[in-house]
Amino acid sequence: MRILSALLLLLWASAAEASERVIALGSDVTEIVFALGRGDWLVAVDDTSSFPEAARTLPRLGYYRSLAPEPLLARRPSLILATAGAGPDAALRQAERAGIRVVRLPQNYSANGIAQKILTIGRALKAEAEAERLARRIQQELAAAGAPAGNGRPRPRMLLVLAAAPGRILAAGSNTAGDGFIRLVGGINSFRADGYKPIAAEAALAAAPDIILVPSHVAEMMGGLEAVAREPTLARTPAARAGRIFVVDSQQALNFGPRLPDAVAGLRRRLAPAGG
């Protein structure tokens, strides 16, 4: 009996040592943790983490860019996985001073970038083999989904827009998820700026986008596609006049997580009839 008890205790200790109490900050991080089969290690997530459905049942810590240290510490995590921009940095540094391991994930909006993010999370979660398989699959699916149609037509000029406030439109320039998504789907970003910047009607007209992309949460905020097409900043662009405005799922297309290939393939299918 003593031997059996000792074995059970050893097994319990090994299991406890192998697992972590993990906080995921960022919808991309949460999706990757679940995709690697480590969702049961999560003890809390940020408010943007809504996929998969199991993530909705976890304790919420607030918006990942404006976290307070006390809720982080209260969950007694052993590991915090923080997407780019998570913070403020002071809250994460306080967690580190409390002995919590914090893994900050730099963002690179490309197929290689998402693969590196998956591999980094896999190492932190002791899931290297699973991460290698997932990263390889994502890269292969992105390559297939974004493959040129081979029809010889020019790449479409695209503009991805956000609504900062009524009447104030932002466009995605370089070094943004919007720019990365446009490139993966085979388009050319028609907005020549760095980051997300306000765009006026004259600048939007000069950008001359063939296609305007609107994240789903922005389309809802603006009152739907018809309202987006009537927006004075965008109304005179070739895309608006031709009715070439497409809604893309905000998280699926822009968080650069495991569902990104589905978003790329989905938009390419919608563009195919017009040779996009």
Quick rundown:
This protein is α/β, with parallel strands linked by helices and 276 residues long.
Largest sheet: 6 strands, mixed
- Morphology call: globular
Distance between the termini: 70 Å
Order of helices and strands: HEHEHEHEHHEEHEEHEHHHEHH
Average pLDDT across residues?
Answer: 91
Work out the number of β strands.
10
Q: What is the count of DSSP helices, taking H or I runs of 4+ residues?
A: 13
Low confidence ranges:
4-17
CATH topology of the largest domain: Rossmann fold
What is the CATH first-level class name of the largest domain? Answer: Alpha Beta
Radius of gyration: 21 Å
Give the CATH architecture of the largest domain.
Answer: 3-Layer(aba) Sandwich
CATH superfamily of the largest domain: Nitrogenase molybdenum iron protein domain
What number of domains?
2
